[in-house]
Design brief:
Blueprint (H helix, E strand, L loop, with lengths): L1 E7 L3 E7 L5 E8 L14 H20 L2 E8 L1 H4 L4 H12 L3 E3 L2 H10 L10 E6 L4 E5 L9 E3 L3 H5 L9 H17 L10 E5 L1 H14 L8 E3 H13 L3 H8 L7 H14 L4 E4 L4 H13 L1
Parallel strand pairs: 1-4, 4-5, 6-9, 9-11
Antiparallel strand pairs: 1-2, 2-3, 6-7, 7-8, 10-11
C-alpha cells in the first residue's frame, strides 16, 4: 500500500509518496513562503492560511491520483514559529480531513538520522540536515534522540543577519564565527571529529546543484564534495560578478540561502575537523514514514 507524506516547511510544501518497500515513487513541491504572510506578532494572516489550504489540497489530490492510500501531514520549525498554528491546523483538518503533526526539533533530527545511519557503518559521520530557520545535527552512531540537536542557525536565520541579499566577506566571516559560537554554547559534540558530514535537505540539494555546475562534474553515485572545493566555490560566490547566473540557473527559489548554506556547512566542517561531505536525498519525510512503518509492524 502506497503511503504519502506532505511536509510543511518555511519555503514550500512538499509531497513524497513511497511504495510498500518504502521506495520513493513520486515527489511534488509547491513553493510557498509563509514569512510573507506573517504579522509582526508571528500570526499567519488569513491570506496565508488560504494559500496553505490550497497547497495542502493540491498535494493531497496529487497523492491520491498516484495511488496513495494513507496520507500524513507534518510540519517542522516553520509551523512551530506560527503563533496561531492551532487555527491553521483546525482549518486544514476541516477542509482536507488531514491532521497536522508538528515535530519538535529533536524529532526532526531523529527522523532524518534514522534513514542515514548507513553512512556511519564504516566511518564516523555527522548528519547536517539543512532546513530553513533551523538545522538538525546528529551523530549517526548516536541512537538516543535526546542527544541530537536542532539549532537556530539554518540558512534563513543566517540570511536575516545580512544587510543585503548576498553576504560580504566580512559578514561571511561573522556568520562562521556565529555558527561556531552556537555549536560551542550548545555543547554539540564538542571535541568530536568526523570522517564526513552527511548533508540533507532541499537547500543542501540546491547547493550541490550549484557545486556541480561550478565544477562541471559530480560523482552521480557518491555525490561527494570536498571541503577545499566547497570553500573555493563559496569564495567565488562571495566575490564574483557572475554569481547571479549560476545561482539562478540552479537554485532560483533559493538564491538567497545557498551562500549561507555553504557557509554553515564549511563552519561545521572546520568545527569537527572534517574534509568531506556527502549528499543524501533521504531526510525527515523518508525517516518519518519509515518509523511509522516500523511502529505498525
Amino acid at each position: 500500500m502506497r503511503k504519502a507524506l506532505i511536509d510543511f516547511s518555511s519555503t514550500a510544501l512538499s509531497l513524497l509518496v513511497m511504495d510498500d518497500g518504502l521506495r520513493p515513487v513520486f515527489r511534488l513541491r509547491r513553493s510557498l513562503s509563509i514569512v510573507e504572510y506573517m504579522t509582526k506578532k508571528g500570526r499567519l494572516q488569513d491570506r496565508g492560511i488560504e494559500k496553505v489550504l490550497e497547497a495542502v489540497a493540491h498535494l493531497k489530490e496529487a497523492a491520491e491520483e498516484v495511488g496513495a492510500r494513507r496520507i500524513y501531514l507534518i510540519a517542522t520549525a516553520s509551523m512551530r514559529l506560527i503563533a496561531n498554528h492551532g487555527e491553521v491546523s483546525d482549518r486544514i483538518r476541516a477542509m482536507t480531513g488531514l491532521s497536522l503533526t508538528i515535530l519538535s526539533g529533536r524529532e526532526e533530527a531523529y527522523c532524518a538520522a534514522s534513514v542515514n545511519r548507513g553512512y556511519a557503518e564504516e566511518e564516523s559521520a555527522l548528519l547536517l540536515d539543512i532546513g530553513g530557520a533551523t538545522c538538525q545535527i546528529a551523530d549517526l552512531r548516536e541512537p538516543d534522540m535526546e542527544n541530537m540537536f536542532s539549532l537556530p542557525i539554518g540558512p534563513m536565520s543566517l540570511y536575516k543577519r545580512l544587510d543585503d541579499i548576498f553576504p560580504t566577506k566580512k559578514e561571511a566571516k561573522e556568520m562562521r564565527r556565529y555558527v561556531a559560537d552556537v555549536l560551542t554554547g550548545e555543547m554539540v559534540y564538542q571535541g568530536a571529529a568526523y570522517d564526513r558530514i552527511v548533508l540533507a535537505g532541499s537547500t543542501a540539494e540546491a547547493l550541490l546543484d550549484v557545486y556541480a555546475d561550478f565544477y562541471g562534474r559530480l560523482d552521480p553515485e557518491m555525490r561527494t564534495v570536498s571541503r577545499r572545493m566547497l570553500r573555493k566555490l563559496a569564495d567565488h560566490l562571495l566575490d564574483s560578478g557572475d554569481r547571479n547566473g549560476i545561482l539562478l540557473r540552479n537554485a532560483p527559489e533559493k538564491i538567497h540561502v545557498v551562500i549561507p548554506a555553504a557557509i554553515l556547512a564549511l563552519a561545521c566542517a572546520k568545527f569537527y575537523d572534517t574534509e568531506r561531505f556527502v549528499y543524501s536525498d533521504m531526510g525527515v519525510k523518508e525517516g518519518y514514514l519509515r518509523i511509522l512503518e516500523e511502529d505498525n509492524r
